[in-house]
Fold Branched-chain amino acid aminotransferase.
Amino acid sequence: MRKKDKKIEIQIADSQVNVNGQTLEGYILTAGKREIGQIAEVDGQFAILKNGAVEVLYKKFDQAVEKIIENFNLNH
């Protein structure tokens, strides 16, 4: 049987995020009421955050967003 495709709305909101104990301006991505990722701009690059630490850096904001959504879809 084939699984029916579900449409999931992802929202990006400006927020304060913690990076290695510092509070910076950043973004929080949510799917419904569930937070799926955080992004902060660090040294001119966009960092995906995991548990308050930098997990990976991307040169473009769109690349970081795509990676968070990809990881969410794989683990959802």
Summary: The radius of gyration is 13 Å. The mean pLDDT is 91. The chain has one helix and five strands. The longest strand covers residues 10-19.
